[in-house]
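Repro:
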Amino acid sequence: MHPLSRGSVHISSTDPLTLPTINLSWADNDYDIGVLVEGVKLARRLIKANSLAAIQAKELAPGPSVQTDDQIADFGRQNPGTVFHPLGTAAMLPKNKGGVVDHRLRVYGTQNLRVVDASIIPVQLGAHPMATIYAIAEKAADIIKSGR
């Protein structure tokens, strides 16, 4: 739920209607792949538990032909998906650490441009982001009204 792989979003044209270039960098971090492999193995152990026998659960993916750690890892790389709300594409971090905005939500290297959304959150949340995003918006309103 808290991947370490980091993707990027870049402007690809001076035309504002041109879509950005998005690189998810899905599973670029070996730790993420290891978590995926162990998660599949745990799910398989749980599905075989006597307490679940009554529901006759059946594995749909990656399926019985995928058994080794390498096969599970390959399946994960070839079939990416998410169950969380992606964020962090304009992280509030120091610029030298890959940040895009400062603590006042100003985009580095620009004037009069701020980012006020989930993209400033530098790490994945363990809960729904709605309340956090409301808090970001409230704080941004305070910052902007104060003229900082």
